[in-house]
Amino acid sequence: MVVLDGTVVSVALPSIQHGLGFSSAGLAWVVNAYLVPFGGLLLLAGRLGDLIGRKRVFITGLGVFTAASLLCGLSQGPAMLLASRFLQGIGGAVTTAVTLGMVVGLFPEPKERARAIGVYSFVQSAGGSLGLLAGGALTQAIGWHWIFFVNIPIGVVAVLAAARVLMPERGVGLGKGTDAVGALLVTAALMLGVYTIVETAGHGWASAHTLGFGAAALALLLAFVVRQAKAAHPLLPLRVLRSRSASGAMGIQALMVAGMFSFQFLCVLYLQKVLGFDEMHTGLGIFPVAVAIGALSLTLAPKLIARFGPRAVLLPGLALIAAGLAALGRVPAGGSYVVDVLPALLPLGTGFGLAMPALATLAMSAATPEDSGIASGMFNTMQQIGAAFGLAVLSTLANARTDALLSHGASAPSALTGGYQLAFRIGAGLVAVSLLLAAALLRSPAPAQRRAAVEEMPLAEHTAQPAGTGQRKS
User: For residues 174-204, b (16+ Cβ closer than 10 Å) or e, as one string?
Assistant: First the structure.
């Protein structure tokens, strides 16, 4: 539900603009008002899960998201919708930040954990594609309000199910990490950083606005890092970053997601503006990616990770993503979906279905039960930063290329296609860089070492082991 909301709205933007009277500049904030708090609060929410219990944080976030969805659907003007979307972003961040940490704690056995992370990765990866399909169907059939109203019954059922199914946990206690100054610094830094990136479309990368706010965000982030090195109970224990595999996986994920956004955003525009697809057919056109992701992340990827290790699965996954984006970089203005687009989407979906479970496994490889919430929050934060940065950079370059071609007399379809081609190729380059970094930096432990590490890891409280069964072996 939370992941779908990132893309389900984009399909409905023209209807929302017509229904509520948004200006062209203001319409972008229907998306940005969600992204800014979502990207800014993931780290803080993840640490709160470690301190006061992930189940409690998870249910609170679900409740806020569901209530905000109701307010979004009831909105009668731009101000109410933007405020409700901001609240929805808060709920989404609080819910998402602790989810991967709960998965890791609930499934300590390697094969079970690999399958669980595969399901988690499918939801994260395929949700964007499914959101395009759902957004088009709901908007065309019954109106844009229902892209928000549909969350209400789902959210209520999810809250009730979480309250019943998830075992309670107390967390390590607020006394173990109540770093209020650190929380303020990192939240302000991330929110300001995401805001700066999403506003580059209106101000430009070299503008005083972008440079000034970007410098302020970096200064706040540097102050946060200094604070964490000195604080008695840091919000982000620096030991979480000492694992080369974990920290490397998070950085590689940001690059991969930045490159992939040339597909998720610009391929939709190519289908609509060049090939003439409507919302419903656009969603159906992207749907094979979700199918390929599901086929890999739910079935084959967990088995391969358990047998060969996440690095061995990640490398071919990244290579397939880069190949798919490079193929999209060759789409012609008079192209055909079956001939030019579909053959590129299949390796994209296959590669993402392999890469995401492997990255999630690597990112959480060094997390202890006390730190799994903050590690989960960091993993999702890097994904959001990569998405925001990729969208801003690639769309800016695509627009600049399109404008240059138009000024030289190219037709509108040819100019648009030229811009999209450039963005796809740069996206392929970003993923290729992430592949090189993964090959150079990441290492997977041998299967026997992975099993031993899991056996030595204390189980999270919410696995509710009987007394004595969770003790470490001598």
Answer: eeebebeebbebbbbbbbbbbbbbbbbbeee
Using the structure block, give the residue that is written with the tokens 């969350």: 151
Instruction: Tell me if residue 346 falls in helix, strand or coil.
Output: helix
pTM: 0.77
> 137: which 2 tokens?
């169907």
Tens digits of residue pLDDT in 367-401: 676 777 777 888 888 888 888 788 778 888 888 89
DSSP type of residue 429: H
Residue 168 is classified by DSSP as P
Can you tell me the distance from the alpha carbon of 52 to that of 10, in angstroms, rounded to the nearest whole number? 35
Tokens of 265: 């955003």
Encoded tokens for 450: 């992975």
DSSP-derived 3-state class of residue 461? helix
Do residues 155 and 65 make contact, with C-beta atoms less than 8 angstroms apart? yes
- Going by pLDDT thresholds of 50, 70 and 90, the confidence category of residue 211 is very high
From 167, 141, 138, select the one nearest 154 (Cα to Cα): 138
Please report which residue ranges of 309-411 form alpha helices under DSSP H.
310-328, 342-363, 372-407
Given a contact cutoff of 8 angstroms between Cβ atoms, the answer to whether 324 and 283 are in contact is no
Buried b (16+ CB within 10 A) or exposed e, 341-360: beebbbbbbbbbbbbbbbbb
**Residue 449 clears pLDDT 70, i.e. is over it:** no
Determine how many CB atoms are found less than 10 A away from the CB of residue 5: 26
Q: Which domains, ranges and CATH numbers included, belong to the chain?
A: 2-178+233-459 (1.20.1250.20)
